[in-house]
Each structure stands twice: as C-alpha cells, then as structure tokens.
Amino acid sequence: MIVSVSRRTDIPAFYSEWFFNRLKEGYVYVKNPMNSKQIGKINLNRENVDCFVFWTKNAIPMMKHLDKLEGYNYYFQYTISPYKKDVEPLVQDKKLIIDNFIELSKLLGKERMILRYDPIFINKDYTMDYHKIAFKKLCEKLDGYTDKCVISFIDLYQRTERNSKHLKIRKPTEAEEDELVETFYNIAKEHNITIEMCSESRRESFEKLGVKAGKCIDSDLIAKITGNYLKYGKDKNQREECGCVQSVDIGEYNTCIHGCTYCYANFNKDMAKKNYEFHNKDGELLIGEVPLGAVIKERKIKPVSTKKREKVVEENSNNITLSFGK
Fold first, then answer.
1. Given pLDDT bands bounded at 50, 70 and 90, which one contains residue 322?
2. pLDDT digit string, tens, across residues 92-143
3. What contacts 155, CB < 8 A, 6 or more positions away?
4. Contact 299, 40 (CB under 8 A)
5. Phi, psi of 51 (to 5 degrees)
6. Which uninterrupted H or E stretch holds 68?
7. What's residue 163's pLDDT?
C-alpha cells in the first residue's frame, strides 16, 4: 500500500507528532470526506506500507522524528512557491524552508526530494518576469539537491476565486503558459533538474516544449527507492489528467492552517483554524473523535504484482529506463 501524507492537508508541518504517534500504534483512522461515519482503518506497519509520500511546505517539525521512519520507504513532494505573506500568510520563512529542503536532501538523497513550484498564477505583483526570476533563483539554490521539479498552473475553483478575490489573480493564457514552461525547462536544464507537469490538460503542447506529464504518486520512483516494481493501477479518485497511481490518503480537508489564498483543500481559513482546535495528537483520527454509529472498515490496496529489480530493468529496456541507485 502507498500512503499519501497528504494531499488534503500539511501533516508534516502541523500534525507530525500525531503522525508519528499513529506510526507507533500501527494504524490510523481516516474519515470518508463524503460521509464522516464511514471510517477506514489504515494499517501502518512496515510490512503493509510500500511507501509514504509526504506532501508539505514545511518539513522542519518532522526532523527530530526521522529516525522513527527507519525501515520505511518514503519521499517528499516539497512545495516552495515564490509567493509572499499576502498569498501564504502562515507559511514559514522561505529561506528556512530552502535550508530544510537541502538538509533533507543531504540525509535522504536528492532522488527522494521532489521540488514543487505550484500553483502558478499571475497578477500585478506576480508577473511573468517575477516567476522567471524567482524560479531561476530557486534552481540556483537547489542545484544538486533535487532531480525533479513539478509545476502546474492554478485551477480557479469557486472557493479559490472567492478566497483570493482581493488579489485579482488569474490563470496565465496559453501563450503565457508556453512561455513559462519553455523558460522553466531551460533554466532547470542548466541545473540538471527535470521539469514535469502536474494534472495539466495541455500535455501535448507541453511535451513539444520538452516537458512531460508526471506522476506525483510515482510507481517508477518507488521502484527506484525500493528495488522492486509495484504495479499499482491509476488512481481513479483523481482527475483524468492526473497520472498518479493508487494510494490511500490519511489527511482531512479543512485542516491546513497555512492560510494560502489559492488552496483548494480548505473552504476557508476560519474553518481550518476551528478544526485544528479539535486535533488530538494522541487521537486515532486527525480531527475529533470517532462518531457514534460509525462503521470502521480496514482499507487495503495491494499491488497487482511485485518484480525484482533486475527483471524490471530488462523488461523496461525498450521503453523506460529505471535508474536504480546502489
């Protein structure tokens, strides 16, 4: 099973103590986002977890606990965006975040540190030139500390438009998207960083510019990390453009208190702050207690097959190269 920690909230930044307590207990409860009385029990034992994928804008609170992940496979999707406090009011100082990214890379290896520069939007302050300069500076600082950067353009959901109305942000035009993708590709190439797109419908246009669609929950990367190829199917719970394979997410919506105005996972910052008050670091659920009458079922997602490293390399030699480390 691949465990996503988490698309829905920033567990490393705000709930890392809870996560490691659940790791110690060996399981976690997760509410169905559509029905709070349907609860999944996720087995977190080493034998059950093929890989953790951590999504974060601040992994600093996790650092003192990393030894507890010994024996687990994991990697980070680490977002470092170019925005200031008007957009990301409670995100940690970016210099500290970059330093933390580098520290993790030195500990884990650069292949397990995926940089995210997203979502990309435009307004009077965050212009095309602003993004080009910011991305160049970021690549210069992280040269040698990551192999890959994932980018995406903002999707203006109704709640995103409502929460960011005062900023007057907009999605770049197709011509602007192409210009940024081409510029980013050339900048990243100078620093030996590969650019991939996350869930973009214009994938053919971007591929012509040298940038392919990626998989954030990535079975190929997990194969490199573990030495085994775990054949998971596409995650049907994600958008059609999403290339991610199946995983179980242990987060909860409306619980991230970074307060980012573009966030799709929070209805509003006040709701997130209110939910945060009901967090118990020793609880089985991220927020609150198990409701009366809840039905608890164990969740299991198993790979179709497991192949050893040498066989995977041989089978994929004609279409994809899996560059395993020693």
1. very low
2. 999 999 999 999 999 999 999 999 999 999 999 999 999 999 999 999 999 9
3. 119, 171, 264
4. yes
5. -165, 140
6. none
7. 87
84: Cβ contacts below 8 Å, ≥ 6 apart = none
**CB-based contacts of 25, cutoff 8 Å, min separation 6:** 44, 284
pLDDT of residue 284: 97
Distance CA 300, CA 298 (A): 7
| pLDDT for 308 beyond 90 | no
pLDDT in tens, 42-61: 999 999 999 999 999 999 99
* 90, 257 contact by CB (below 8 A): yes
- pLDDT at position 107, please? 97
Cα torsion angle, 139, 83, 120, 221, sign? positive
Helix or strand or coil: residue 173? coil
Distances (CA, A) of 114 to 6, 79, 163, 209, 219: 15, 8, 28, 21, 14
Predicted model pTM: 0.91
Whether the ω angle into residue 105 lies within 30 degrees of 0, i.e. cis, is no
**Peptide bond between residue 6 and the one before it cis (omega within 30 degrees of 0):** yes
151 forms beta bridges with 117, 197
Residue type, 226: T
d(CA 181, CA 45) in angstroms, rounded, equals 41
Task: Give pLDDT tens digits for 286-295.
Answer: 999 999 999 9
**Strand pairing category for 295-299 and 228-230:** unpaired
Q: Are 5 and 266 in contact (CB under 8 A)?
A: no
Q: Strand locations in 84-202, DSSP E?
A: 113-120, 148-153, 194-197
Write phi, then psi, for 77 (nearest 5 degrees). -100, 100
User: Are β-strands 228-230 and 51-56 bridged in parallel, bridged antiparallel, or unpaired?
Assistant: unpaired
Q: From its phi and psi, is residue 227 left (phi > 0), alpha (psi between -120 and 50) or beta? A: left
CB 304 within 8 A of CB 294: no
